[in-house]
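Workshop exercise sheet. Pairs work together: one partner reads the sequence aloud, the other fills in the structure field after running the prediction. Swap roles for the next sheet.
Pair: D.N. / O.F.
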Amino acid sequence: MMRSICGECLPGEGGHEGRLVAIRASGVLFRWQRGSCGVSSDEMTLLRRLLPLACLVTTLSAFAAEPTSEVFEKPSGEVLRLEYLLSLPEGYEVDPAKRWPLVVFLHGAGERGDQLANVAKHGPPKLAAAGQKFPFLLASPQCPNEEWWTEQPVLELIDSLEEKYRIDPTRIYLTGLSMGGYGTWHFATLAPERFAAIAPVCGGGIPYKMRLIPHLPVWAFHGGKDSVVVLDESARLVEVLKKAGNTKVEFTVYPEAGHDSWTEAYANPALYDWFLSHSLPAKP
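Structure field:
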């Protein structure tokens, strides 16, 4: 619609000398200062030609402002793949009805790649390779080169292990060092009800996400002189958990240790006893 804002002058008519004339068309306001001769016929012709364009622009703007509900869907043929070392406990084959605990170990950045033997450089798989017997299944996956644990199908691997082996779903534990320590915190907050306990070593995470695991038993380890992943990366998460009311948090700091706090942590038999002392409530 086109109308004059001035109540005394209509477009194209004579009017008052010096009066401001304005015409509104579909929400667009056109203004000009009338001279003593009024508005010329050329000016009115130009104005009338511009008005349809103004109407079109405002109409399109109205349509653009309307939100629509859409869905993106693309079938994925992605194959989830992780190579891993697996150690079975002594006696696993003796009683086919018995279900066993599972410990999943996530290595550090230096063991990434396609040489699976590198996974046994540190931590529980190193001890298992040296002949130590654990009373649980130990699964140690390998992260591909230049990637991070947060991008890997660790939870899907655990699903697969549960299908393939006799695993007690109430006693699944997660631990890791350095990059794997970060991964431990990450997957614990991603699946808060999946693990009976976690033990991140010289790792870190997002303090805000600690609100997701106020119930989870946590034993964190860190070196007091760690210059690669500073002590505060673990300390701040432990502090947030305690403030959130988590009474099942333990924090061990080795004052003289640098980044390698894992050798001492994983050599401690109390860690594995602590793991096995925790379990999830049995599902009905």
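Discussion prompt: The chain has two domains: 2-64, 84-276. What would you look at next?
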